[in-house]
Amino acid sequence: MEPTRVVVTGLGAVSPLGLGADSMWAGLREGRCGIGRIKAFDPDGLPCELAGEVPDYSIQDHVPRKYRKSCKLMCRDIELAVIAARLAVVASGLVTKGIDPDNVGVDPARMAVNMGAGIISCEMPELAPAVAVSTADGRFDVRRWGREGLDHVTPLWLLKYLPNMLACHIGIIHDAQGPSNTITCAEASAHLAIAEAAQIIARGDSDIALAGAAEAKVNPALMVRQILLKRTNNTCNDRPSEACRPFDANASGSVFGEGGGVLVIESLDHARRRGAKILAELVGIGQSHSLGPAYAQLEPDGQAVRIAIEKALDDADIDARRLDLLIPHGTGVPQDDLAEARGVEAALGEVIDRVPVWPTKSMLSTTGAASGALDAIAAVLAITTGTIPAARNFEKAADGCRLRIATESVRRPIEHAICCSYTHGGQTAALVLKRYDEGATE
User: Fold this and answer.
1) 190 in a structural domain
2) Measured between alpha carbons, how far is 396 from 376 in angstroms, rounded to an integer?
3) What is the CA angle 436-438-442, rounded to 5?
4) Contact present, 313 and 432 (Cβ < 8 Å)
5) How far is CA 138 from CA 124, 152, 189, in A?
6) Where are the strands (E) in 292-408, listed by range?
7) Does the predicted model carry a pTM greater than 0.90?
8) Which sign, positive or negative, has the C-alpha torsion 196, 209, 90, 67?
9) What is the total count of domains within the chain?
10) DSSP state, 37?
């Protein structure tokens, strides 16, 4: 029996470059930067005052009228995921309950939802009153928290911040009754969620899946954590567009942000039956785990990155010589970028000097769990348009980095593209996407 082929038919992106995959792609092609001074809260006094924030929106405009009361139970991460999912479904041409309840064109039982999520940090005003009454003489008293503090927390508070609620709201809105799962593996979450969704389809448990991730890192607590871990760029507050410089000799840290990305993936047979426009084919999946000696940093030799890339290439049944594009994780943190570069070099071998490498976070910022979904969307659009945009903020490679960073925009056929991600907890993942060939049989 021939293996089930899995294809991409819809893209939905919410990023610092705009709402919609087309807006994000236009920004990437133009080399625009979505990083600026933080607007969500007053960053004055923080060493890093920058973030990648999505444009203003109203969540009410992106959910069915009958579902709008549920918006009060959505944190920022959930909102980003819900918007990205709707954009992806609309782009795919699918008609779900969330698009038109009177003309549903899918079998709900055959539609899955797989989402990645990160650390969902509570908005401070929601917990501050409870913490205040639980504090005495400058010290938090857990007994007072139990006796008095919890009375100041709304009973529905937790429903806003459970990581599985991204997939939950998407599933309810679109009436997706197939397998649903949430993966919380930080920056690797999206690639892992997309991979699992593809495996669900490949084994015949669903025909369609909404897969991706969302995360909002523009939060005082999350920002302070990254600053304390020395991952942020603290020198470019007056030059935000120059702050994030993946793999560059002058890189001095990352800039964090928010975003959401969802891909509609289907079995090839299902996509053909409904006459869908097929954007790309997902042909390779690689996953690994290898924890470095210092938890706060990627392991120096990038071993986990190497393993994930090698597994993805093996799953796609190709070798590195057939790669036309690699989108790395590339955050602008010097020691992590160098480790990733070493892992990529070990996986690609002699091909390292030929494969174009295009980092995106200099324009999109580091969006946590969402970053892998946005990169996968960028890879699909690179394939469909035959374009590799120029990397931003790259002038000279950091010592020890052999990656061939794309410094000029290039138009060329892209047959295979790979994107990869890693976490400081050791999880890594890679996906190989292929230009769809109508005549291919395997």
Assistant:
1) yes
2) 26
3) 80
4) yes
5) 18, 19, 38
6) 325-327, 356-357, 387-388, 404-405
7) yes
8) negative
9) 1
10) E
CA proximity to 331, closest of 438, 407, 226: 226
DSSP string, 270-317: HHHHTTPPP-EEEEEEEEEE---SSTTS--TT-HHHHHHHHHHHHHHT
| pLDDT over threshold 70, residue 352 | yes
Q: How far apart are CA 385 and CA 411, in angstroms?
A: 8
Beta strand 35-37 pairing with 356-357 = unpaired
Residue whose C-alpha is closest to residue 147's, from 129, 138, 131, 134: 134
Give φ, ψ of 104 to 5 degrees. -60, 130
* pLDDT tens-digit map of 107-132: 999 999 999 999 898 888 888 899 99
Give the DSSP H or E segment for 24. Answer: helix 21-30
DSSP 129: H
The domain that holds 315 is classified in CATH as 3.40.47.10
The number of helices, as runs of H, and strands, as runs of E, in the chain is 12, 18
To 5 degrees, how large is the angle CA 277–CA 279–CA 281?
Answer: 120
What whole-number distance in Å separates Cα of residue 258 and Cα of residue 16? 7
The DSSP code for 103 is S
Per the domain annotation, does 151 fall within a domain?
no
How, if at all, do strands 18-19 and 410-411 pair?
unpaired
**pLDDT for res 110:** 98
Q: Closest by alpha carbon to 416, among 392, 440, 390, 391? A: 440
Reading the block at residue 440, the tokens are: 């291919």
DSSP-assigned states of every residue in 81-93: HHHHHHHHHHHHT
Nearest to 401, CA basis, from 411, 391, 387:
391
Q: Residue 441 domain-assigned? A: no
The two three-digit tokens of residue 259, written as one number:
């975003």
Range of the domain at 348: 6-122+161-434
Percent of the chain with pLDDT over 70: 99
Judge whether 267 lies within some domain. yes
